[in-house]
Specification:
Layout: H1 3-24, H2 28-32, E1 35-43, E2 46-49, H3 50-62, E3 76-87, E4 92-103, E5 106-120, E6 123-136
Parallel strand pairs: 1-6
Antiparallel strand pairs: 1-2, 3-4, 4-5, 5-6
Length: 145
């Protein structure tokens, strides 16, 4: 394996971790900086193209998080595992991994991330993210429309 491949793999691992940490903390500005301007985010309810639409999707999801009263969750924690990275070359890559989401009530939902990345301005960024949901707890945070 060449040195650039190690650097790319570590940068992509860091990117996935920053996505989770920033999103779970409500730091949407830094999280949106992890996407290319023309990025596409696919979630079970539809696709969101470009930074503005992706931001709207996250803002909508954040509205379901709050005090822990009723259907709102007091906190959200995304965890990823088995990140498999395929480097297509110096500028593009793809990956897939499992995720699970915990809230103050326990395991909420789980599934897979299927990602495409592009290197821009010396940084690896999300060009496309597909979120699949393999299961969810009925009535939980992830079960809300």
């Amino acid at each position: 394996m060449e040195h650039w491949e190690f650097e790319a793999r570590e940068a992509i691992r860091d990117l996935v971790a920053r996505y989770n940490a920033n999103g779970d903390s409500g730091r949407f500005g830094p999280m949106l900086e992890l996407f290319t301007p023309d990025a596409v985010m696919h979630i079970p309810s539809g696709s969101h193209r470009g930074i503005a639409e992706i931001e709207g999707m996250f803002t909508n999801a954040a509205a379901k998080t709050g005090s822990g009263d009723g259907a709102a969750a007091a906190f959200i924690r995304h965890h990823t595992a088995t990140l498999q990275i395929d480097l297509d070359g110096l500028e593009t890559a793809s990956s897939r991994c499992y995720y699970q989401v915990l809230t103050d009530r326990g395991l909420d939902h789980w599934g897979r991330y299927i990602d495409r990345y592009r290197r821009m301005d010396e940084r690896w960024l999300f060009a496309e993210r597909k979120v699949t949901v393999d299961g969810r707890v009925p009535g939980g945070w992830g079960d809300q429309g």
